[in-house]
Amino acid sequence: MQRVETRGDARRGSRIVRESVRRAVANRRIFPYLVAITAGLGLLAGFVVTLVDRKDFPTFGTGVWWAIVTLGTVGYGDVVPHSAWGRVVGGAVIVVGVTFLAFLIAIVTSFFVSAEQEEQVANEREQRAAELAGVVESLRRIEERLDLIENRLGT
Q: Which of 41, 46, 97, 112 has the fewest CB atoms within 10 Å around its CB?
């Protein structure tokens, strides 16, 4: 018996996907996902463009080559879709490629920024510890002097 998906099931599924994406970003494991998704999209786009534009993409390999070059926003121009559907696929591949590069740049930048912030926090922590040690030492000396004063006063 087949199960019919209800709207609640779809929401629960999308919530699970959102949560797994959030955890991947938080744990900085998003890069492998982006690479896998982009590689999958390259293969899929190569297959689709081979189906919709046989004239310009006679083999699956040619389609995948074009998709990879287009996803990387290089666009050598050695293979170009001329049919309307080929150009539609090409437009989608360009958008995905630019998006992938934007995410990649953002991830690398965030790694650099977080590394710098961690270093800054460590330096601040060391500085605070040194200041605290100085304050503790000053208090110790003040206490010694107070003890000496109290002893001299005979209290």
A: 112
